[in-house]
Design brief:
Number of domains: 1
Shape: flat
Helix content: over 70%
Number of helices: 4
Largest sheet: none
Strand content: under 5%
Length: 173
């Protein structure tokens, strides 16, 4: 009985450590964002598109941080001794990736608009190069996203198949 209490105390300590670490990281990140925003506001030579891009970066990074925190907290709450732990872990990981993909899509849309405004100032010869670079980056990300989605589908099917094939424990009555 004493060993179980010690193990539970260790688990609780680690959970609190994770939560406190994310709180500290969040506070540090918020203060850094405020300081950088003040610095940008005080610098008259930074174009408006640059300030918008920075604000977008800060906003999306805060969402990413919240999603990672949620993923980690969900993962540490899983009962890893239960038979459905692998499925719950995969679901938590898929939720994290889906959040990241939706945020990435929002960033791609915003940066495309900002890039369009920015490239208006470039010589017309440079615009196709910038457009090509942006489209190549976005299409490569779409390929990666498709690959990850297929991997999650494959992993879910594999877990389903393994669960179906796993023999049931014999009753000890």
């Amino acid at each position: 009985m004493q060993n179980e209490k010690i193990i539970q105390d260790i688990v609780d300590f680690n959970k609190n450590t994770v939560r406190m670490s994310f709180e500290a990281l969040g506070t540090f990140y918020d203060q850094t964002a405020k300081a950088a925003d003040q610095l940008l506001g005080a610098t008259p030579y930074v174009p408006e598109e640059g300030k918008k891009a920075f604000n977008l970066f800060i906003k999306e990074n805060q969402k990413v941080q919240a999603n990672v925190k949620n993923f980690v907290e969900t993962s540490i709450e899983i009962d890893w001794t239960s038979k459905d732990a692998p499925v719950k872990s995969l679901e938590a990981m898929e939720t994290l990736y889906n959040s990241a993909f939706s945020q990435s899509n929002a960033i791609q849309k915003e940066t495309k608009d900002l890039l369009k405004k920015t490239t208006e100032q470039l010589p017309k010869e440079a615009k196709p190069v910038v457009d090509f670079w942006n489209e190549a980056l976005n299409s490569n990300f779409q390929i990666f996203q498709s690959f990850m989605t297929k991997n999650f589908d494959f992993a879910k099917k594999g877990l389903k198949d393994v669960t179906a094939e796993t023999p049931k424990a014999a009753s000890t009555k």
